[in-house]
Amino acid sequence: MASKNHGTIRAGKPPSQRQLRVGEELRHALAAVLQRGDFHDPDLKGHLVTVSEVRISPDLKAATAFVTPLGGGDMDEMLAALRRAAPFLRGQIVRAVNLRHAPTLSFEPDTSFEYAGRIDAILHSPDVARDLGRHAAEDEDDSWDEDDAAEGADDLGYEDGDDTDDAFEDAGDEDSDGPADGRGSGNRGA
Prior knowledge:
CATH superfamily of the largest domain: K homology (KH) domain
Number of helices: 8
Strand content: 5-15%
Distance between the termini: 78 Å
Low-confidence stretches: 1-8
Oligomer: single chain
Radius of gyration: 32 Å
Helix content: 40-55%
CATH topology of the largest domain: GMP Synthetase, Chain A, domain 3
Shape: flat
Structural class: alpha+beta
Largest sheet: 3 strands, mixed
Strand order of the largest sheet: 1-2-3
Mean pLDDT: 75
Order of helices and strands: HHEEHHEHHHH
């Protein structure tokens, strides 16, 4: 007999295309409902909520919404209010998204912004700047600079006073319609 894993994510497997598509539709519908503010809970009434991601189970019966309060605020209070309003929000989402079964909603705090802030602080720390400075000094010989470009131009036979664009400007100064060497009109297909 097959076991039922309702609401669990398959370990090691990425979400299917259908899961991603349904999760994104649920995110849009949930954000629209929260933006309208059609609920009676005073903890949600005056707060703006950002829904950053909705992950849905493979059987499409359970959905987890990752939320954060816009402009700061008490995350625990907001999560408690969203969990109390979950049945109402589920009913509103069912009207917006055409699914066979209405998924059960759960809410989790979105910590990706905090994580990005920690990574940014680490990258700007003095220890990392010192390490990057040490590697930059080692790689200095490999970098391109104007002296290298001048040496490369000398290898091609140009001198410092030469301007390669002068050849094109001189060719355009002639009164003929064709190229400077007189091989034809220069018009294709005419």
